[in-house]
Structure formats: C-alpha cells, structure tokens
Amino acid sequence: MIQNTDKPKFAVIYEQKDITNAITPYLLEITYTDYLSDQSDEIQITLEDVNDDWLYDWYPDNGDGVELLLADDMDELIVLGRFEISEIEYRYPPSVVVLKALSTGISKANRTNQAEVYKDTTLANIVRTVAKRLNLSITGQIRDIKITTATQYQERDVEFLTRLAKTYGHSFKIVDKTLVFYDNEKLGENEAVAVLDKTSVIDVRFRDVIKDMPSEVQVSTYNTQKKQTITKTAKPKPKRKGAKPTTTDTLKITAPNNATDGEVAAMANAHAQNQADEQIAGEIELVGNAMLVAGQAILVQDFGKFSGKYLIKQARHILNSQGFLTTIEIKMLEYIDPRASDTQDKPATDKKQEKPQ
Question: Where does the UniProt annotation place the signal sequence (predicted)?
C-alpha cells in the first residue's frame, strides 16, 4: 500500500469527485503511460477490494471520467489530463480490481469506420477535416504538403490519421479533446528539458543497431498526363558523423499515381527518417518525475558514444508501495561527443587511446 508522506504523490478525481482519501488505504499501484504517437495515453489503477465494494456499489461504467494528478520533481501535483474508463479487470484471490482508462475516450466517432477520398488538398486540410468530424481542437505543427489523393479505406479516423502521419513524417495522437499532429523534424528542434547522467539514473539500457539500414530510399510516382515516372530519393542520416550504412541496398516505395513532387519528397524523407530513427535508442529508469513526458528532448551525459540529445518516445510513471519511479524510452536525435569541449585545450600531439588487444 502507498506510504504516507508530507506531500501527496497523487490525486484521483472520479466523475468530478475527489476519491483520493477513500482509495489510498486500498491502493496497490498507479501506472500512467504517455506515448509519443500511434496510441492513446493510458492509466491503470490497481486496488484491493476486500469488501467487494468495486464489484457492487462502486462498480464503474465504461466511459466514466477520471482525472489523475502525479508529483513532479518538486513533489507538486500536476494534472495529467482526463481519461475515460475503457476496461475493468478483476482478480481473485486476493480480491483485486484494476481500472484501465484511455485519454482518447471511447466515443462513437472514434469507433466508426469511414470511407472517403480527399483530392487536391493539403495534409493540414485533411487533419482539420477529421478533427472537425471528431469535435476536437488541433495542436501541433503540420508541414505544408500538397496531396493529390488520399484515400480512407473503411478505417476509423484514428487509424487513418496514424497512417497518414507515418507516411509524411509526422506523429499523431488524441489527448482528451485535442488532436495532436506534429512534424517529427520540429520535435527534434525542441530544447532539452533535463540533463541525465550516471548520478541521476537508477538503471540504463542502450542499443546501437545500424545493421540492415538501407543506404537510400526511393519513392516513385507515375504521372498519367506526362506519361513518365517521377522519383525522389533520400538518405537515412546516421546519428554519428562518419557512420555509414552497412548495406548498399535501396528501399523502393511506390506512391499513388500523379502525386506531387512535394508529396513524393515528403514520403521519401519520412521513410529515410524512420529507417535511421531507431539506430541508437534506449530506456532509462529514474526517480519518479511526472514532468517527463513523450515528445520532450533530454540530454544524456557521461555515457561515451551513447551521450547526446534524445527524444522521449514513451514515459511510464509507476507509483506503488516501493515508491515512485519513471521509465522513459528514448531515441537519439544527435550525438554529442562528451570529450569535444576538453580536446580544444589539449596539445596536438595527444592521440586517441588504443583499444585493448
């Protein structure tokens, strides 16, 4: 169970009623997961149910609203948003109830399949059309891309926008009543919100995978009026200068007929970026801090070739009897040589230390 502290680590508002004090004696764990894209942010609240209250009088309805607040690094509570109950899980023995809720909600609009063709428009206009249909406001930065034809093939709006975002180098998700759609390149320009080193982390895992990354991406479209094929290319950019793909393979992709030059180029750049994005990535566990969320940039220091600027892809915050922990999944945006500032004052005769034989 959650231990008492001078300052509360969490608060739960259920259908506009503060139930924090009522559930604290029975609370086993709270998990909040914030995703960069492709899926809804979610919470799980795990409770002992020794009196069977949650099986009867307190049994929630799907769609009930829940607000969650967690502590930042100064132990001040911050609002993480409004969620809607999507699933109730029961376990026995002992009697335990798990409430699962999604930020997207489970409204009829999000579940309805749509079949629609968008012609002679822009990426931003398509996003605005779908947002209006879902009664959502829009936030984020959308690149100015002209689109000849985009087809929604009996898909839910959230599935269609997810596919569209990946195709043109953007990320998409729905948070509460807001549709978030932003250019991945712009995310990489964000200032770092935190600096993490060996003194500020609990556990770290990094990986560096460049195997099988193609040397080039080609996207082609056929212009039916000119009766010719138009091809645009883009090269995946390794995170470290001088690093090269291990293959000379070319990834070839076919775009719809009559796609514009800008559309084809955007697709090539998006696929090249996707190929390079997962080259250097990792996971960091640290003392709980709900201020760290997906989409933010951080600096990682004191880890040699893994040092650099990273983007948070996913942040998971877990509060239980063991304490409050945050785990972030990250991918490298830019390698920053940790010795670069030191070498300026060193004599020219200094040599790189030889590897052990």
Answer: none
- Residue 257, CA distances (Å) to 149, 150, 221, 263, 269 in order: 9, 11, 5, 11, 19
Indicate the residue type of 204.
Answer: V
Q: In three state form, how does the secondary structure of 309-350 look?
A: EEEEEEEEEEEECCEEEEEEEEEEEEECCCCHHHHCCCCCCC
Selected residue with higher pLDDT from 242 and 134: 134
Which among 95, 41, 22, 3 is positioned nearest to 290, based on CA atoms?
Answer: 41
In three-state secondary structure terms, 179 is strand
Which residue carries 């991945």 as its tokens? 184
- The Cα 155–Cα 157 span in angstroms is 6
**Residue 152, token pair as written in the block:** 């929604």
Segment 307-329 mean pLDDT: 94
Per-residue pLDDT at 109 exceeds 80: no
Residue-level pLDDT at 264? 93
DSSP class of residue 25 equals G
Using DSSP, how many helices (H) and how many strands (E) does the chain show?
A: 7, 21
Residue 214: alpha-carbon gap to chain centroid: 24
Q: DSSP letter string over 220-250?
A: EEEETTTTEEEEEEE----SSTT---S---E
Which tens digits make up the pLDDT trace of 147-170?
999 999 999 998 999 999 999 999
- pLDDT of 297 higher than 70: yes
Question: Mean pLDDT, the chain, as a whole number?
Answer: 87
Return all residues near 121 (Cβ < 8 A) that are at least 6 apart.
146, 147, 150
For the cut 60, the answer to whether the pLDDT of residue 33 exceeds it is: yes
**CA–CA dist 182, 171 (Å, integer):** 6
Residue 176, pLDDT > 90, answer no
